[in-house]
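Async update (no meeting this week)

Hi team, since we skipped the sync, here's where things stand on the single-chain job. The sequence we agreed to prioritize is pasted below, unchanged from the tracker. I ran it this morning and attached the output directly underneath so nobody has to dig for it. Comments welcome in thread, and please keep replies under the output.
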Amino acid sequence: MKPVIFGLAGLTIAPDERAFFKDSVPAGYILFGRNIDTRDQLRALTDDLRALHGDDRLPILIDQEGGRVSRMKPPHWLSFPAGAAFDRLYDVAPASAIEAARINAEALALDLAEVGITVDCVPLLDVAIPGGTPAIGDRALGQEPMRVAALGRAVLDGLKRGGVLGTIKHMPGHGRAMVDSHMELPRVTANDAELEQDIAPFRALNNAEIGMTGHILFEAWDTERCATHSPWIIDNIIRQRIGFDGLLLSDDLDMKALAGEVPDRAARAVAAGCDIALNCWGRMDEMIGIAHALPDISDASQERLDRARAAINPATDWSHQADLIAKRDALLALA
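Output:
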């Protein structure tokens, strides 16, 4: 097995993809809008991926946060609110906000489980700050670390109730970034003491099965390498200080915050301590290059992957989703 999660090009597995995936054996897959049409089509695609590997617990990921980051859209699927909706409710009714976030996540997970998706790349535990990049913006759960942690825990719990694992991101924190890491490398100049508030939500939820790095350079910790490519940050901050021993994914390796060819980016991420390199775009030449550049998955990463896979318990009953949505909307109306 190669320590990588790949994207796909289209609505079905193309013949060249089928042969390549069978030979390279990636750890899982991630889906985007280009892979999604209808419920029946999407379920057929995820079933085909599982059948290809003979693996009923194959990690199949998606970015379905709600708000502007939603790959599954109406009319085939429901629309869900962004994180800021729960932050606003927390201002007036914290307990109601936590329950609304949990209910919303469970309802969202039922949509995913119904079509065979097992992992959602949410919650964001990035602590927002005024003036931060709009790339985070209304996706964030708040500006206070323990609020973010409380709402994030509710999201993880709700997703799991619906049969889907969550992913805490973007470790060790994207909130202070002034630029969008999709477009350029953010440099954070805060000192170590100030960065304590950024890592606090991740420490509070360090028992999550899956986490994701951010392509952010923290001058207090590593003046040359962003978190994804920094052995010091992954070992000393993510693994030790945060205490996260779950499966660590890189963020998408195609983002412009990173330099060099994509296969080299993948190799550097895994060498730095990421368990899994994330390659989202389904470009065959890049995927072949990554498969050649990466070693086989390490024993430690395989053990973390196995733990995450064991926690996947897909839901089989979606009949209560409407009740969940009604309860969520009644709570959100309080704000």
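Quick observations from my side:
The mean pLDDT is 96.
The first strand starts at residue 2 and ends at 6.
Reply here if anything looks off.
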